[in-house]
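The passage that follows is intended for readers who have already worked through the single-chain material. We present the inputs for a multi-component assembly, then the predicted structure in tokenized form, and finally a short commentary. You are encouraged to pause after the input and sketch how you expect the pieces to fit together before reading on.
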Amino acid sequence: MMWFNIAKAQSFMPTQGTEIAKQVDNLYGFLLITSFIACVLVIGGMIYFVWKYRRKTPNDKTAYISHNTFLEFLWSFIPLVIFLAVFVWGWYIYHNMRAMPKNALEINVLGKQWAWEVEYKNGYKTVNEVVVPIGQDVKILLTSSDVIHSFFVPSFRIKQDAVPGRYTALWFRAEKLGDFHIFCTEYCGTSHSGMIGKLKVVSREDFDRYLEQGQEERNLPLAKKGEKLFAVKACASCHSVDSPAVKVGPSLFQKFGHEEEMDNGEKLKFDENYIRESILEPNKHIVKGFPKGVMPTFQGQLNENELSALVEYIKELK
Amino acid sequence: MATKSAHHGDNYINFEKGLWSWLTTVDHKRIGLMYMISVMFFFFVGGVMALLLRLELFAPNATANVGQVLKNGDVYNQVLTYHGAIMVFMVIVPGIPAILGNFFLPLHLGAKDVAFPKINLLSWYCFMAGAALAILTFFFNKIDTGWTFYTPYSIRTGTATVLMVLGAFVMGMSSVLTGLNFIVTVHKLRAPGMTMHRMPLFVWALYSTAILQMLATPVLAITLLLLAAEKLFGVGIFDPALGGDPVLFQHFFWFYSHPAVYIMIIPAMGVVSELITTFSRKVIFGYTAIAYSSLGIAAVSFFVWGHHMFVSGQSETAGILFSFITMLVGVPTAIKMFNWVATLYKGSISFDSPMLFALGFLFLFAIGGVTGIMLATLPIDVHFHDTYFVVAHFHYVMVGGTLMALMGGFYYWFPKMFGKMFNENLARLSFVFIFIGFNVTFFPQFILGAMGMPRRYFDYIPAYETLNKVSTVGSWLILTGFLFGLYAIVQGIRKGPKASMNPWNSKTLEWQTSSPPPHDNFAVEPIVTAGPYEYR
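Having made your guess, compare it with the prediction:
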């Protein structure tokens, strides 16, 4: 199998983080070499012929060869055999990719414009960061709250769409410690290219400690909880919190207690109730200069405790 | 018609005078030229957008001044959408059949016109009306869905999707009408002695394409109407919030759009067959195999749409079946490649610019073809799906394939269309820049895709910067090439020396009439006694 790996080295594929990645690269290496040979035959043959049979006089005699049944059979049959072999080999690997292992560690991932919301079995939530232990089967259960997204980890050679209204899944067993990129590969609007997450592969002990820490975060003070929630709900992709710079939505930095002009000219005080209303009915009062209909409602997605935490956090942005 | 009583011209261009005579013409040659002007205009618009996209991707956004050409992700997504929609629906799908097909199908068959000349004119108006509707959206409410209009994004984004979709619908009608016209023309208007097996391969290709257009386009039309109904009335077919299925849209969409990929490439294969045999001055190798493999590709293309959806959540079994059938399309395609190369064997090959484009086609299509097999292979597609690898692959097939053939065919038939010769050196220079620029632009994208860079990205991580820079520089080379080409064409039309009846010594019928052809194509109805490529 060494020559496949040589091909792999030239294939610019990212680090192989799983066993499946190695299997995919072997097949890819085989295809690269076969394709290269095929191109050399076709393109090389073409270049050789056009040079050898270039027009020498205006009235060159050419051969009259209309067909050759044996040759034609051969060049239909050989590609067919190669294609079918590749197909079967691909089928085998694909089946390994799709057969979900039993007793895998399950992690729920929700795609939303424009972040990955991650939830572990113990209720711990993070955003854009999936932490998994090394050497264990992990099953990611995917869905989406708005449009179709696609969960892609290049180093693991796995990808699956997150479709609203249904669950899809993928699995992997990480074999390398370290951080790997998670990209969204299904076009999902404005910040599609900013929807980047991190997949951290850590040791078993680190993973257990990570989950415990997550448990402890539940007892944080209200504003800290709000900060966490602000990140988890990806509010930061539209609102800046540490500078007056405007993103898609208005900045929330040092806004609390001040008056804001609305798009209908009305002036409203930026207080607890306005924050609450903006989260639950975002299109009721739009700050001047911003378009209507951009922010989705969070009605039904946050409980009273979480709303208070967010208000407390925004209050403290000084 | 009364207005036509006072015509005296000796060819189709000076047959009648005035803009009105062009806008009301039913002459397939004039309609071909009208398509040519419209398509070239759309190509220019789509091309400028491509350059802007590449300019934006020259550097990541973190880099000051460069990499911020398009302001923000929304503007980028809009430009991307229009680039894709314009190039697909207004340039590559109509390109060869509407320009070269309209002009040369009747000439190839020895006919006076297509079967339904007025429907032919109507199809041009449908095309223009659809294009106008689509472009109109750009001026008041831009769309940002990508040319695929995937649900539920296209339902939720607050933009002019309905109007755009209506535009695509009307352009689809144009496609169906042209297909219908071509099928009837091939069956009914062949000159005496021209059996099906004596038709030039370009005609065979147009015929296969026409069948695809007739059968596949209505599916797109229905899908787009459903999408419009969903958006306007919230009927709940595709939107999960209303109980619909978003993946259903993908099934419908690709059921049209995969055959559409062959609507784009089969005519190109037809043009290349003509070019290779003419400039090798040799009978084509495996005429029957090439003719029937076009039909074979057309037939199988209806059953492969699911290979766009290996990671969409469709069942494992479906993925396996679609992968298998997709592999089968590779066989007739490979047969054609081998036939073209075999035609060169013991030929007398000249390097006129149309032939350079045909050889360029073989080169690029070989790469496009083998990477297509990679994408048909299930686990490899899982990694490559929706990355730049796919972008590189379909640009190699559609631009490297279809556009190369369109340019080659255009230079080949230029003397017949305008009765003048273009500047050969300029045309060759144009080819060299386009060919090199194309590879510089798109080959790095294969590597970017393998490295994992997803497509439709406004910005990217720093690891992808170098290859994106190279790719952008390549796009400037392509631009230079097209500018040389445009200059060659304009100069050729204005000041080119007069072309003879048959400057390339070709055997097919269109060269047996004067250049440019008279209004009725042939002074005397031709009688066919042999196959189309009897070079002995």
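Commentary: The first helix of chain B runs from residue 19 to 23. The domain at 30-511 of chain B is CATH 1.20.210.10 (Cytochrome C Oxidase; Chain A). How closely did your sketch match?
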